[in-house]
């Protein structure tokens, strides 16, 4: 907003660091209750801002532009002092006064309470890779993509993790051809050609999680590229 609306200045942002957890429990005949389950709830960010205008018409123009920018739903939200991105919807815009230099508040509801880093990349050659570059946040995330180019012809391609996840492509792949597993779009290609029908149904496609302690192992030697975003609360 600071660069999109002339005269708009962010004063403070609160709510990024906390969280609330809803607990489901059943009361016991004795003291207390028995825990059943829990979930992290949506969180709310509060942005305090200052808007400077030179006239009433200028204020109206800037307010209109601000409202237009804030009307987008479930969109990416980022801040200059934070390397992580959030996804949310503006649920409230209020002004504290009616002067030409009002302060105000923007409330953003984050349906997804987690935030995500810019995409990181690990490249190398071999049959395994440690993902220690994934910050130790305590929260695993789906990788963006795994690319692998085998140095030899293989009858099948498999990548497994030390945490029980695996992906199996039941198709022969010649040496030098790139295999791309895109976990965001749930697609798999070999040299750009779709091979989704050859992916084993037992593969952890939609739930192949990685974290700081993950080690990936390939069933052949080759060049790999791992792309991922770090997830934190």
UniProtKB/TrEMBL annotation:
Residues 138-228 form the Siphovirus-type tail component C-terminal domain. It holds the Pfam family SPP1_Dit. Residues 11-110 form the Siphovirus-type tail component RIFT-related domain. InterPro entries: Siphovirus-type_tail_C (IPR054738), Siphovirus-type_tail_N (IPR008841). This is Phage tail family protein. The lineage of its organism: Bacteria, Bacillati, Bacillota, Bacilli, Lactobacillales.
